[in-house]
Amino acid sequence: MPVRFPALNQTFASYVVDGALRYAPFLFRGWFWLLLGVVGCVISFSRPRPSPTAGAVFLFGVLYLAGFFPTAPASDYRYIYWTALSVLLGGLVLLAERGQERLPGSLDEPAAAE
Question: What's the pTM value of the predicted model, to 2 decimals?
Answer without folding.
Answer: 0.73
